[in-house]
Amino acid sequence: MAHPRPAHTHPHHADHEHGKPLIRFDHASFRYPQGPALEDITLEIADGEFVGVIGPNGSGKTTMLRAILGLMPPTTGSLQIFDCACQNLRCHHRARIGYLPQKRTVDPNFPITVHEAVLMGRSGAIGLWKRPGKADLAIVRHALEDVGMEDYDDHPLGALSGGQQQRVFIARALAQHPQILLLDEPTTGIDTTTQHNVLDLIQRLHEELHLTIVLVSHDINLIAPLAERLALLKTRLYALGSAKQVLTKEILARVYGPQILTTDTGHVIVADHHHN
């Protein structure tokens, strides 16, 4: 079956206000044993850019994050992160990539404090079996301040609300002092008000810390106003550009099917339910 050509509205060059490309997919394909996960992806993400990754279930969104983390080398084509081939990422390179995986329920009885959870983000820098120094403890404190959770330092992680836990996990990623922050469905499983608060936090961290952010979301309406560019996946990269360029009825119907609706206010309604 012939695939429609991706609706690339612009070449994959970074915007001028951003720095050099940090992430470069060049005709990269990634496969699982059961078949292709991503095919022929060409995409550059610049230093300081905020890119939203959208697409139906099973379209390769999480695979893209796994690839950037160096966990999945391409079967064909290439992927470079910080000028390294992704499979050659060294520890000091990996430490520059913060990662917030899809939300998992924290056992309320699991004996870990907020402080200990965030300190885990320093493990790559501290090394195994070494005790954290004053600088590490200061970094943990600042990371908690960045996400507004400094007053919960000694609270049990399991006793916090879903939104508070999500802030702690963002703090853990920030404690690495990353240059790139990868977020996989950061608003899943929390209420609408908290979703907006978490996204406001991510937007502020992007601006204040000059982070390069790649945010995967099934909720097009939440991510569209924040991301500078959207990458629409369905195994292939179907469209890349601003929300206005990507979220057209024609492109969305081609990827999600005819059940897509767009309202006069620009909201997108997709009959596509999120599963892990």
Q: Given this structure, which CATH class of the largest domain is correct? A: Alpha Beta
> What's the helix count?
10
Basic shape: globular
Please list the strands of the largest sheet in the order they lie side by side. 1-11-10-4-9-8-7
CATH H level, superfamily name of the largest domain? P-loop containing nucleotide triphosphate hydrolases
The chain-level structural class is alpha/beta
CATH architecture term of the largest domain: 3-Layer(aba) Sandwich
How many domains, in number, for the residues?
A: 2
At the fold tier of CATH, the topology name of the largest domain is Rossmann fold
Strand content: 25-35%
Give the helix level as a range of percent: 25-40%
Low-confidence stretches: 1-16, 272-276
How many E strands? 13
* Major sheet: 7 strands, mixed
Mean pLDDT across the residues is 85
CA radius of gyration: 19 Å
Distance between the amino and carboxyl termini:
27 Å
Topology pattern, helix = H, strand = E: EEEEHEEHEHHHHEHEHEEHHEE
Can you walk through the features of this model?
This protein has about 280 residues and is an alpha/beta fold. It has helices spanning about 60-70, 90-95, 115-120, 125, 135-145, 160-175, 190-210, 220-225, 245, 250-255, and strands spanning about 5-10, 20-30, 35-45, 50-55, 75-80, 85, 95-100, 180-185, 210-215, 230-235, 235-240, 260, 270. The chain has a seven-stranded mixed β-sheet with strand order 1-11-10-4-9-8-7, sandwiched between helices. The protein has a four-stranded antiparallel β-sheet with strand order 3-2-5-6, covered by helices on one side. A hairpin with a 1-residue loop joins β10 (about 230-235) and β11 (about 235-240). It is globular.
